[in-house]
Amino acid sequence: MTENDKSTPSPGRRKFLGTTAAAVAVAGFSVVSGVRLVSLAEAKPADQPVSNKKRWGMLVDTSKCSSGCDACVTACNTENGLYTTDHPKTDAQWIRKIDLRNKATGWTVSLPMLCQHCANPPCVDVCPTGASFKRPDGIVLVDKHICIGCRYCMMACPYKARSFIHEALDQQVEYAPRGKGTVESCTFCVQRVDEVGKRRDPACVEACNAEGHKAMYFGDLKDANSEISQQLKKYQSKEIRADLNLDTGVRYRGI
User: Dihedral of CA 23/27/32/34: which sign?
Assistant: First the structure.
């Protein structure tokens, strides 16, 4: 399992960033006053560095996922400040519900689609500045300080899991800063994962459990004793677009 951690731009990428800084300013990219786009690579305290001893992942049991339920989507929007008073609607989709249908048989299945947190993420490979990166623990993120809004990562993602912020935003949550002219996507609610003393599940998983569906599992894929590892060992699961060999951190059962 390769790490492909690109949290630090190469000299070539740093040069590219320097030559594009002026263009970014002219394009009108901005952030909300008073909000610092903190690099999520530094979300954990200095005395608890992110380690490759863990790999965070998610399992979705589609047999328990109802097409009429969007609790996971609502929870994500609320947790990460995607809906605000001034902007009740947004084009951003960190997680969305989709229905798949077999044209031959008519069989349908509903499932949540989000960043798959690939071990070999194509979004990271095409990013010219290193803004898209993968932490050693497998969580794929975007550093808003470095993102220039080129959207190459959006084109490279086979899951259409990234969104672009077209307008200035306000009323943001401090732990999930957003900025006009940057790309964003699911972070596995990294602020919860990195919470000192009591790691919590992502908001989507918590909401799914609260609804009684229990269709989503989250945990350490490298821990053989974790619930998600036990589920993956006991029942068959699949990657979406397994043919791409991305080694996704999100797996699905029943597709």
Answer: positive
Enter the DSSP assignment of 136.
T
- Phi, psi values for residue 152, rounded to 5°: -60, -40
Please check whether residue 85 lies inside any domain of the structure: yes
* CATH (domain of 155): 3.30.70.20
Contact by Cβ (8 Å): 119, 130: no
* CA nearest neighbour of 91 among 156, 25, 162: 162
Strand partners, 42: none
- Cβ contact 229:244 at 8 Å: no
Task: Give the pLDDT confidence of 2-46 residue by residue, as tens digits.
Answer: 344 444 444 444 444 444 444 444 344 444 444 444 444 444 554
Q: With beta carbons less than 8 A apart as the criterion, state whether 218 and 58 touch.
A: yes
User: Over the range 47-57, which residues count as b (16 or more CB within 10 Å of their CB) and which as e?
Assistant: eeebeeebbbb
In which domain, by residue range, is 149 found?
Answer: 11-253
Q: Please check whether residue 55 is in contact with residue 221, taking contact to mean a CB–CB distance below 8 angstroms.
A: yes
* Rg value, the chain, Cα: 18
Residue 249 lies in a domain: yes
Pick the closest to residue 40 from 248, 194, 231 (CA basis). Answer: 194
